[in-house]
Amino acid sequence: MEDENQVKLSENTAKVTRLSILSSLSRVTRSFIHVALPLFVLAIGQTESFYGVMVAAAGYVQAFVLFPAGIFSDRKGRGLSVLVGSIFSGICYLLIPFTTDNLLILVLYALTGVGSGFASTSISALVADYTEKGEERTKSYGITITAATLTAMIGSFLAGFILDPSALPGINPEMVRYAIVFFIMGGTGIVTGVYGYYTDRWLHSNHEKVGWRTEEESYESGHTAEHDTRTAILFGATQTIMGFSSGMVIPYLLPWINAAFTPDPVVLGSIPAISSITLATGTLFVGLQSERVGKLRMIFILYLFAPILMFGLVYAPFFLLMVAFYITRMAAANMARPATNSLFMGEVSGARRGRSWAIIRIAWTFSRQTGTLLTSFMLGAGLVGGMVTYGQVLFPIAMLLYPVSVIPMYVAVRRNSRRQQESEAASQLHAVGE
Length: 434
What we know:
By secondary structure, the chain is mostly helical. It has a single domain (17-206, 224-420), classed as Growth Hormone, Chain: A (Up-down Bundle), CATH 1.20.1250. It is 85% helix and 0% strand. It has helices at residues 2-43, 48-76, 78-95, 102-129, 135-163, 174-206, 214-220, 225-249, 253-261, 265-293, 295-314, 319-334, 337-347, 353-381, 387-399, 401-404, 406-433. Helix 1 (2-43) packs antiparallel against helix 6 (174-206), helix 8 runs parallel beside helix 14 (353-381) and helix 8 (225-249) runs antiparallel to helix 17 (406-433). The radius of gyration is 22 Å and the shape is globular.
């Protein structure tokens, strides 16, 4: 018995390690862009408004491809979807430094949304496919997201370091620095695709998909297409509320810090890098403890802190205090991801996991880009003053939607729990009748 447990532990460790590496590779590509893109936009003579349009365009494109990407992932395999999506995004990043026309830059960055749609859907579903519903799945999400968050620290810091003339002198002209960053992003994107494809093949050869195991059949039997659709719609309502709030704030946080405090690029890149350490620690804690505390309760408590910490961030009188609020706020709002992902994946069937995940990501992406685009319009029109004034007025207000967003998620879980109890009671009555 002890030998069997040791073998199972070894197999689970190998499985989670590979999934963590895949999540880390995917995340490090995106971590470069958070620092590089707003600075790149200013370097080519554009404004924060144009930056907002770029981010929104990529998000809308991603939203359009998410559902077909989810169907493709369910039918053709997670690995092939990661391969196609990551390589496509990588090629787009490689082409951006060779482009001088602003419209073409906008189009190329928007097209990265195609690759993100295919890759993100499949990586999240892949973790759920090979983990047990409940504690194992939540822990696996906690570990993989923690690994990805720590890796993101490398991208944020390295982007700021490469772009800072004082930190890395001797590289001229300035656009060469941006070319180096985009080349790294493109290269890691391609590596992510290849590694994701072979990880899926390895998992398929060495592990059984959990969603189709006998011990889950009794639970999954009540998961009709209608059940999964309604669950995805309710979780999608949560993502819509939170996405709109996030879209008005998160893409503009670093531009706001840049406008309010004008730090050097290496310092600007270090802020999200440092926050990744606390975020990773908190994410691991949530992944390990949320089953005991309760996923919904944990999510609500974390989201309740988001507007409070944002208020402290935008009204901090000096730079270091603002950084402390930034780190704490990013940790509190993002630590909930293992619990949220595990909760949703456990409420839908394995056979429709990719497309169900796509539905909630579409809701998130459309609403987030709408918030980003609305902010871009307000900044461009000068409706709320400049970047600094906008952040001080609207960032805390937008964050108030985070705790509100938990309500539809709560309704979905309660509804499914009640239906499951009714189904079990009916089965027991039927067994007694026989």
